[in-house]
Amino acid sequence: MILFISIVSIVMLLSFIVILRVLLMERTLLKKLAYRDGVTGVLNRNAMDRFWGKCSDKRALAVLFLDLDHFKDINDTLGHQAGDLLLREVGQCLQEVMQHNKQVFRLGGDEFVIIMTNVTLENAESMAARVLDRLSNPFVIQGQKVIISGSIGISFNRASKVKRSELFKEADMAMYQAKRLGKGRYSVFNEDKHSYYKATELITVLKKSANS
């Protein structure tokens, strides 16, 4: 009888350990899914918010906005499944060029953002050039060779305090400037260079206010 009770106790203990391990694995998986993009495997917006919050020193910080050129044409020609496979390859490519003080996130669609800390503007430009160089290599998607390029906008912060929205907006403006210049290149945000676009935006806001 005592032996039977001991065996039952051991079985119950082992069962408890197995259940506990399964629960821990599920928790780890859910945590991973919460911060990983399902298509590309790179970090997502949730992870970006978390990373930004933990980044205590935002001086010497660079934000790089990457938008793939003509991605819609690839989706329309090869289909959305091929487009997702291409995004996954691009995500893997970006992760391969990242280092300890750099993180890549997918914003959605064909847009990615790279955040670099404790860097110079020259470091950010060098990273942009490396990314564009890697993207210039053909990808093989479903047995077909796919050639793409990307446009990158760079914003750089030298102050101790900065609003993320401002840095991201500047990087976005610089990215569109790169597209206007011919795509497949990067552009650095410059206050003078982009003053026209800011002025245009202000005029638009004033017109909307006047009409409301």
From TrEMBL:
<keyword id="KW-1133">Transmembrane helix</keyword>
<dbReference type="InterPro" id="IPR029787">
    <property type="entry name" value="Nucleotide_cyclase"/>
</dbReference>
<dbReference type="InterPro" id="IPR052163">
    <property type="entry name" value="DGC-Regulatory_Protein"/>
</dbReference>
<keyword id="KW-0812">Transmembrane</keyword>
<dbReference type="Pfam" id="PF00990">
    <property type="entry name" value="GGDEF"/>
</dbReference>
<keyword id="KW-0472">Membrane</keyword>
<feature type="domain" description="GGDEF">
    <location>
        <begin position="59"/>
        <end position="191"/>
    </location>
</feature>
<feature type="transmembrane region" description="Helical">
    <location>
        <begin position="6"/>
        <end position="24"/>
    </location>
</feature>
<dbReference type="InterPro" id="IPR043128">
    <property type="entry name" value="Rev_trsase/Diguanyl_cyclase"/>
</dbReference>
<dbReference type="InterPro" id="IPR000160">
    <property type="entry name" value="GGDEF_dom"/>
</dbReference>
<protein>
    <submittedName>
        <fullName>GGDEF domain-containing protein</fullName>
    </submittedName>
</protein>
